[in-house]
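Lab notes, practical 5.
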Amino acid sequence: MKVAFRFAILGALTFLVAAAASAQLAKGFRGKVLDMGGKPVAGATVSLTDESNPGNHYDVKTDDHGEYIQIGIPYSEKGYEVSVHLPGMPVLGMIAKPKLMTLTDLTFDPRKCVGFQGTVNDKGGRPLSNVTVTITNLDDEAHPFTTKTDSKGFYKKTDLPYSDKGYKLTAQIPGEAPLSKSLAVPPQMVGQADSQAEGPIHQVAVMVADLKFGAPEEGSTGTSQTASQTAEAKQMYDLGDYEGALAKADEAIASKDTDKESLKAAKLIRATCLKKLDRTDEAIAAFEDYNKDNPGNVNVLGELYNLCEKKGDKAKAEMYKKEFQAKGGQVQGATYNEGVNALNDGNAEKAVTLFQAAIKENPADPDSHRELARSYAQLGKFPETIEELKIYLKMKPNADDAETWKQAIAGLEQAVQQQHKKK
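Output from the prediction step:
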């Protein structure tokens, strides 16, 4: 099991592009700001703040066509918080990463803030196709939205306006009473965006809302309310809002009405959020609390092993390692983990040796090639860096960070070419 603390790829690209002068600046952002009627908003201020370095802050105003552009900003691995304030609306914003070679298109449209997706099932849990799902904005009940389930019982409806009161989702089939679910839209969920999406990026928060006939309507009793709190915590976690998910999970855990399954799920969400937030001691305590009530979960034992290793508690780490292995867990990558520690400590030469050894131990592991590339980069060995990154992408073409490394390769190749020209 690989140690999870790879120091957030320390701006996976940060020290790579810092060495390549031609790749230090991102192209930047451009886009439009629209009002609730879809009309362009002139003179709106769009704020951009570097998540890696808040001192890099930019304000740009929209022109008469509601358009804005900001170019030549420093690249940020963590991305930029991009936001705009519109009268009568919550702050519309998102965290997005600027691209090195192209302008990133961010369109702010308050009519397209929220979405819902999920499945519609019968009492036996079987998916129901061609069922109409009606989605009613509780701020504007006169104009509901509708969509239908596909052959697998799945539905999805996006581009819905933000609603302070929330939404009510309703489905009906012959012989059954209408099934409904009411959901509030946490303001902090509005503004999550996929910065790698093709085309313009809209700040849409898609919430999961599964509907099952024969189940009670959520929001009508204390038990279902806490189940809804747990579901909201999971949605926030999936969107990367770990602080929000932690707060919502704590609410569900503190409620006396929380049913057993919701409490179990909320405790696991809480522990995982604490791990994501690098609150190691609290995460260990939270996973131990979960393990006490639900002993033997191999994934939880693996998390406890990792966290105790990270903390340096060798005795506990060894204990959880044995329990993890007893449940069938495979502990691998000791050399890899040593390489990570060496790289984190700034010893790139040692890291190179360790990652080379890790590749010999496990030739099928693409991550060792990526970390070896990062080690080479710290030593200024850019041709070797490029070679290892290409191996990584060939072995793992659909990796979440694939686009980042493709951009790194492009920037480094330009730098290497310029070095050859100078010679």
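Observations recorded by the TA: DSSP finds twelve helices and 15 strands in the chain. The chain has four domains: 14-105, 112-193+204-215, 221-295, 332-422.
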